[in-house]
From TrEMBL:
<dbReference type="Pfam" id="PF00578">
    <property type="entry name" value="AhpC-TSA"/>
</dbReference>
<dbReference type="InterPro" id="IPR036249">
    <property type="entry name" value="Thioredoxin-like_sf"/>
</dbReference>
<keyword id="KW-1015">Disulfide bond</keyword>
<feature type="signal peptide">
    <location>
        <begin position="1"/>
        <end position="31"/>
    </location>
</feature>
<dbReference type="InterPro" id="IPR050553">
    <property type="entry name" value="Thioredoxin_ResA/DsbE_sf"/>
</dbReference>
<dbReference type="GO" id="GO:0016491">
    <property type="term" value="F:oxidoreductase activity"/>
</dbReference>
<keyword id="KW-0812">Transmembrane</keyword>
<keyword id="KW-0201">Cytochrome c-type biogenesis</keyword>
<dbReference type="GO" id="GO:0016209">
    <property type="term" value="F:antioxidant activity"/>
</dbReference>
<dbReference type="InterPro" id="IPR000866">
    <property type="entry name" value="AhpC/TSA"/>
</dbReference>
<protein>
    <submittedName>
        <fullName>TlpA family protein disulfide reductase</fullName>
    </submittedName>
</protein>
<feature type="domain" description="Thioredoxin">
    <location>
        <begin position="58"/>
        <end position="206"/>
    </location>
</feature>
<keyword id="KW-0735">Signal-anchor</keyword>
<dbReference type="InterPro" id="IPR013766">
    <property type="entry name" value="Thioredoxin_domain"/>
</dbReference>
<keyword id="KW-0676">Redox-active center</keyword>
<dbReference type="GO" id="GO:0017004">
    <property type="term" value="P:cytochrome complex assembly"/>
</dbReference>
<keyword id="KW-0732">Signal</keyword>
Length: 208
């Protein structure tokens, strides 16, 4: 009998440990590590994305994202500026290798959709204006980027819905300012992002 109880304890011990670990994992899923970092002001590194694509049905989208910031050229931007059209938001920084790799593709799509129902906005999470401007000149990027390194306000604005917890991350906002799609990591297939943008534009009935 004693040996049976010992064996039971040996089996139950790992089970309880596994349940405890699972509880920790579940509790961790409820928090956004990027948002926590910025609330702490720690300015730590970022999680590498895997390029996964998430689409959100219209009925399942959360509230509109309310944001404001200042671009690398000193221009103020707010979420109200682009309401009524699709907005593509790309989180990046200059020394990020996948950010450099996707830059020309993003710029190409920006040019393709200019005055056709969608615009682009970058969010630079680490650089000051000179580095961001130099990046734009190197990769011929013409759309603006909000400089977010000092406050993290843009990341916090987006963290309540689908947090961009990897850099780069690209979000597609619908005409009401709600997140319609996300690419977590480098945009390796511009055609996929183009389809996401076109599908979101189509929701408004806008035609080219």
């Amino acid at each position: 009998m004693n040996r049976h109880r010992v064996n039971q304890r040996r089996r139950i011990g790992p089970l309880l440990a596994g349940l405890a670990a699972g509880a920790l994992l579940l509790s961790g899923c409820s928090a956004d590590p990027l948002a926590d970092q910025y609330r702490e002001g720690s300015n730590k590194g970022f999680i590498a994305g895997d390029g996964s694509v998430t689409e959100i049905a219209v009925a399942d989208r959360g509230d509109a994202i309310d944001f404001s910031g200042v671009t690398e050229t000193g221009e103020a931007v707010t979420s109200a500026d682009t309401l009524g059209e699709v907005l593509v938001v790309n989180f990046w920084y200059a020394s990020c290798a996948p950010c450099r790799a996707e830059a020309s593709d993003l710029q190409g799509l920006n040019a393709k959709f200019e005055n056709k129902g969608a615009s682009f906005l970058g969010v630079n999470v680490r650089d000051q204006a000179p580095n961001a401007i130099a990046f734009n000149e190197t990769y011929s990027v013409t759309y603006p980027s909000v400089l977010d390194v000092d406050t993290g306000a843009m990341q916090l604005a987006f963290s309540g819905s689908i947090p961009p917890n990897a850099v780069p991350t690209t979000l597609v906002l619908d005409a009401e300012g709600r997140i319609a799609a996300r690419i977590l990591g480098q945009v390796t297939s511009p055609s996929i992002l183009e389809t996401l943008i076109r599908d979101t534009i189509a929701e408004t009935g806008t035609t080219e």
